[in-house]
Amino acid sequence: MSDNGDNGGERHSEHVRVLANALEKLRTHGGLTADRLRADRTGVSEPLLELAVTRRYADVHELDLPEAAVALVHDCVREDLAESAQLVADAVLALRVLEDALSVAGIDAHLTRALYSLALGRRRETLLDHWHPLHAALSVRPLAAPSDRYLRGTTELAVLRELAYQLTRRNTYSVGVKNVVGASGPAPSDEPSPGRVVVIGGAVMDATFRTKHMPAPETSTEAFGFSLSPGGKGLTQAVAAARLGLRTSLLAAVATDHFGDEIIEYLEAEHVDTSLIRRVPNATTPFTGIFEHQLGDSIAVNWRNEKQIHLESSDVLEHRDTLLACDALLVTFEVPRDTVEDSLALVHDSTGERPVVIVTPGQPYSDDHVSADTLAQIDYLVAHAWELEPFARQNAPFDPDAVARTLLAHGVRTLCLLVRGGCNAYSRQIGDVLQVAAPPAIYKESSVARDAFCAALAAQLIVPNQKFSEDVARWAAAAMSCAASDFPRRNSLPTRRRIDDLLEGIQQ
């Protein structure tokens, strides 16, 4: 995290001093653990447990305060400390933040166990004795190893003060902390709404490497984190809608292999209806490789395995009645273009009231564009600027604004162009460009932020007599900001309460 804008006073504030003093005491014995915080009868841990950001973390992730406090410190060490400071904090507090990275780099398991020993003296001894190999394993060029006395009396204290400072920065600037509800506060108000949503899109596995920088050609770099989890725009939008209390179904093709089973189990755990999913035997689950930087921006490589896994128009027609009965239909370009076009035509051919249609043109089609008739059947197109390039005129400079107006002329009802975490909405209903700034977020837009926007937009638009407006766009942008702000924590897709808390905090 950048220290830009710090005038020096914050680092030496009373709040930082008290928190640093607590961390100094919590480094002893077995270090910082949830069990130790629960057993604390001396009040040493109170400065950490009483942070508003700790209470919000507990609320968002459904943890008790000691678990949330430890997880928060883990995140802060991983994301806000650098180089030697990260290693020192990890060892003296026995956090095990770097354990996996050290193992991958070939550090002996006996050394790692000693680095996180129950005895602080053993942790210090291991850190000093192996100062250079440990730094090399993390691709960090260290300064000279400190003496034992200097480590205890100077280095550790400076590192823990920096950690305290970064925790207080999160307490001040983390989205939603001003409106956190403690354990004694009211229960979440995320009761299922009458809205019914169907999402047509992809369900894949995401292999995510978290890295500080991308390697240069013919070189490699070490990731500081890795995860393997269900993903895909269709799947994530379905989960995002379910988190908002909407009755949600995903229409997708999923393999019958081990990863396919994991995808189904994940969706069911998130209360997404999987009855519309077609299981494909003898097929391999598609994968997306994601390289995610510390502040949330990322690049991805997709392997769709389209020869084996794809959603056909017949799969959609089979569930015609379900699609016509839903309130909002969310469609992504992860499925073949013909399937997208036939899906939109199906709901528009209905003589009765049709669902709101929201389309995500991620992974634009490289071989051809969607037809003009299909564009006219899109109520809301939610896109990044670069995704509009296929719709631009050939041999003309790419101008997102000009392309946006061309799409409206072709019949798109509203284009939500996501810009710097906010939204520029081009709408035939409004007749002008509606600019909605993003609520503040520490991190850049994460890979799931747009999916949170789409789900939140659907949740607002299916309310009876609700029309697209600045308030609707602002609520959807707030959902996007919540997802970005909670990156890379678990369950970053927001609930209604999380979004409302953010907006209330801004208004105060």
Structure explained in plain terms:
Helices cover about 45% and strands about 15% of the residues. An eight-stranded mixed β-sheet has the order 4-1-9-10-11-12-13-14, with helices on both faces. It has a four-stranded mixed β-sheet with strand order 3-2-7-8. A two-stranded parallel sheet has the order 5-6. Helix 4 crosses helix 5, helix 5 packs antiparallel against helix 6 and helix 20 packs across helix 21. It is an alpha/beta fold. It is elongated. The chain folds into two domains: about 170 residues, no CATH class; about 240 residues, Ribokinase (UDP-N-acetylmuramoyl-L-alanine:D-glutamate ligase, 3-Layer(aba) Sandwich). The protein is built from 21 helices and 14 strands.
Keywords, please?
508 residues, alpha/beta, four-stranded mixed sheet, 21 helices, disordered N terminus, single chain, UDP-N-acetylmuramoyl-L-alanine:D-glutamate ligase, 14% strand, 2 domains, eight-stranded mixed sheet, elongated
Strand order of the largest sheet: 4-1-9-10-11-12-13-14
CATH superfamily of the largest domain: Ribokinase
How far apart the termini lie comes to 26 Å
Tell how many strands the DSSP assignment holds. Answer: 14
How does the overall form come out from the CA principal axes?
Answer: elongated
Give the uncertain stretches in residue-range form: 1-8, 173-193
- Level of helix content? 40-55%
Number of helices: 21
Topology, please?
Blueprint: H1 14-26, H2 34-39, H3 46-49, H4 52-61, H5 65-80, H6 83-92, H7 99-104, H8 109-115, H9 120-129, H10 131-137, H11 148-173, E1 196-200, E2 204-210, E3 225-231, H12 233-243, E4 247-251, E5 253-255, H13 258-269, E6 278-280, E7 287-292, E8 298-303, H14 313-317, H15 320-325, E9 328-332, H16 337-348, E10 356-360, H17 372-375, E11 380-384, H18 400-409, E12 414-419, E13 422-427, E14 433-436, H19 449-461, H20 470-485, H21 496-507
Parallel strand pairs: 1-4, 1-9, 2-7, 5-6, 9-10, 10-11, 11-12
Antiparallel strand pairs: 2-3, 7-8, 12-13, 13-14
Helix pairs in contact: 1-11, 4-5, 5-6, 6-11, 12-19, 19-20, 20-21
